[in-house]
Write a structure and sequence with these properties.
By secondary structure, the chain is mainly α. The chain contains ten helices and no strands.
């Protein structure tokens, strides 16, 4: 059974490969459905990987390069370069949810929470199922001391992707903390 589910995920991705993909890609609906309904962790990881693969496909080779370069700069803590790359990517492709998500993530790392929230909310406007943007917003609200709002964002992320183990644990920790406060 597991092999059939994984094979189905892979085939649905391979058969319908488009030259351009992003949050508007028609394959995403089926992949999110598979992610939500599967009881097999391997099938869930496969669906999640395929979702990320689609989200990372920009409209043009230039946009792809800006996303890769900005991500690499972020990983190496070259935040000035990362901001420059993500700003340029957003300028040339303002409807690309992953560009907003990446810049929002970078702003979160830099503790510029107001800008991070704005960018992540824009990503969610473009792709309401972006479980990572929801998760990042949850963490920002924890950093700002609003655990109840953080809990709401984490629950929304988990409803979309039930296989977010760290989010599940964070929810449990926050619920216990909030419950202890009420006592």
């Amino acid at each position: 059974m597991l092999k059939k589910v994984v094979f189905g995920c892979i085939m649905s991705f391979a058969v319908f490969t488009a030259p351009q993909a992003d949050q508007y890609d028609s394959r995403l609906a089926d992949l999110f459905e598979q992610l939500k309904l599967t009881t097999e962790p391997v099938a869930a990881r496969t669906a999640e990987k395929l979702i990320w693969d689609i989200w990372y496909q920009a409209a043009t080779p230039l946009a792809d390069n800006l996303l890769m370069d900005g991500t690499q700069a972020m990983v190496t803590h070259d935040y000035a370069t990362a901001i420059k790359k993500f700003d340029e990517l957003i300028k040339i492709n303002p409807d690309f949810a992953e560009a907003w998500h990446k810049r929002g993530t970078l702003m979160m790392f830099m503790q510029q929470y107001s800008q991070a929230k704005s960018d992540l909310e824009k990503a969610l406007t473009l792709e309401p199922r972006h479980f990572s943007a929801l998760t990042r917003l949850g963490y920002i609200y924890i950093f700002e001391g609003n655990e109840q709002l953080a809990l709401d964002f984490f629950r929304r992320a988990l409803a979309i992707n039930p296989y977010l183990t760290s989010v599940r644990q964070t929810i449990a920790d926050l619920e216990m903390k909030l419950e202890d406060r009420q006592l």
